[in-house]
Amino acid sequence: MRDDIIKFLFQFFFLFLQAVRNSLISGNETIKMALTIAVGGRVWRKFFKTFPFRSNSALKRFPTCRANGRLYSTSSDVVLVRKDEESGIATVRMNNPPVNSLNPTLMVALRSCFEELEKDKTCRALILTSQKPKVFSAGLDILQLYQKSPDHVAQFWEKVQDMWLALYGSRLITMAAINGHCPAAGCLLGLACDYRIMAEGNFRIGLNETQLDLVAPFWLRQTMIDVIGYRQAEMALMIGALYPSDKALQLGLVDKLAPIEDVQTVAEEEVKNWLKIPDQARAITKMASRKPLLDELRRRKQEDIQTFRDETTRESVQKSIQQYLEKLKAKK
Q1: What is the pTM of this model?
Q2: Eight-state DSSP code of residue 77
Q3: Selected residue with higher pLDDT from 230 and 40
Q4: Which reactions appear under catalytic activity for this entry (predicted)?
Q5: Is the pLDDT of residue 185 over 50?
Q6: Whole-number CA gyration radius for the chain
Q7: CATH number of domain containing 229
Q8: Which among 4, 185, 212, 301 is most buried, taking Cβ atoms within 10 Å?
């Protein structure tokens, strides 16, 4: 009789845990909270260590853990993040196939990720890369700018601003491991980082907005000037140049080249050199350089949104975007 009771209790407890796990996967917030209170975070993490969160609210309260580091999740699977607890280095991988186009979902996920890592006091560095080699990011999702209402374009551009502010203004060491092509807003992400390592070979990087009759915003132009100098930036921006990786290295647009299969490893090695510098002194020095531009964008944010909205919805720009989309369609 006693054995039967023990067996029954064991089966009941096992079924209960399965039910709770299923509820967690489906995103039941109440059960998540109740379970955490009941059994404690450490036990919960041990049992559900492979469980992926499905909501930002869950992320903020219950980051999941694995043996070799902390796994952050976002509201979708477009950003994959793992932090090594020993070194404090987080690797952020964009995962929006086929070319990591920066649509609202990806940009919001990136911003959320940057902000979460910023708040994590044990995190010291961030490596930004692509889950799929050969394309770091193809830039903005151009469909979000074609035949859309002015309000839609304005909201889209604000997401671009917020993503850039979170990355450019980060206290962390930020390193772009550019493992593929990096045009337009892909280059924007790279420029926002402290250091850029790019894959050798037939890969290109640059701000080619003028080729679509678009104009890079003042804050992106200034970032380009700060990185490669006024004259080179002026020429590159006017003609919408996309540079091969060796030319980008020569200009200072990227800081180091590596074989595509070694970009991540080289980035990790470089970060470890930067980690030898005390965090506080490095971060204060970084902010002294970047604060004026950060403050200017925050002050002129609405002006910048209105400028982009008005320019993008112009008939000539819409026609250029249409022609670009038709060319892409013809290539398929």
Answers
A1: 0.79
A2: S
A3: 230
A4: (3Z)-decenoyl-CoA = (2E)-decenoyl-CoA; (3Z)-dodecenoyl-CoA = (2E)-dodecenoyl-CoA; (3Z)-octenoyl-CoA = (2E)-octenoyl-CoA; (3Z)-hexenoyl-CoA = (2E)-hexenoyl-CoA
A5: yes
A6: 23
A7: 3.90.226.10
A8: 185
